[in-house]
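Final report, Chapter 2: Outcomes

The project's central promise was a pipeline that accepts a single protein chain and returns its three-dimensional structure in a standardized token representation, suitable for archiving and comparison. That pipeline is now operational. To close this chapter, we reproduce one record exactly as it appears in the project archive, with the input sequence first and the structure output second.
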Amino acid sequence: MIRLLKRLAFLALGACLTNCQQTTNNPQNDINKNDSIMETQGKGEVTIAIDTIVRVGEGPIWDYKFQRLLWIDTQGSLFIYTPKDKKNREIKLSKQIGTVVPYQENKVVVALEDGIYMMDLSNEQLTLLGDPEGREAGNRYNDGKCDAAGRLWVGTMDKDCTPLKANFFKLDSSLKGEKMLDSVTISNGVAWSPDGEKMYYQDTPTRKISAFDFDEAEGTISNRQEIITLPDDLGTPDGNTIDEEGMLWVANWGAACVTRWNPNTGELLQKIDVPALNVTALAFGGENLDELYITTASLWMPDGEGDKYPEAGKTFVIKPGVKGIPCRYWAKGE
């Protein structure tokens, strides 16, 4: 894990990973300076939502039925944050965790390093739902989200960032798992357009964001297109989310910001600075879904960078001027 995150940090600063997939940037989508980009002036600045420094904050998702933020530290903690009383419950885990998705008030689904589990929040007990990849692959589960039909789409990654070794799966409520993509390096960021007709996906070291045609009834993806390539100064794409206008938000690892993109044109629309170098994930939340929660990492910054970001590892929030859409629940929360 240490080797992986160090490599990502160097990649975000423009260095090449000698053992990760190499790609060539698309000049049409590369953006260095663009006068049309909306900065944060007039929209406020990020503030601290959760004043706890974690190692690698990740996977925020707003459980709107119960007005709480589910999020994780990939190194072994699940958190449940309720803004109303500002309580941030921590559930310690003995394994690494890649994602959490809501299900019911006292149950959530988590992707741990060795499988997909149901967790009972009342007693913190875990029940294995499935392991569609299998332990012989040697990978761990990473980022994932549910589609409108309640299926979990979740990817994997090799702990040493071995190129093209990982995969991307879906697991439905009958616990049937299916491989949807192979030859992945670090599976990250999955989101759907508001109409459900597109799915957006990121394999982090490629710096590229892909769009697929999505068939909700069949649970299939097709017609992959590379729609955005991040330029060097915007790091690498980690987590993502969608807003009600259909624009894609990306957490920029190694670039101390989050960005908003038009997935139809590849245009960069907005950039919001974050006081942490390694920005990991983001999610719209709050009673009106108009607050953007942003998680960050405190570990594995390049030498000399740590002192510049004393608040790295905290969770931040901002009202960016647009609302998100409601999250999807495992098995529709039934």
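Archive annotation: The domain at 2-14+37-324 is CATH 2.120.10.30 (Neuraminidase).
This record, like all others produced under the grant, will remain available to the consortium after the project formally closes.
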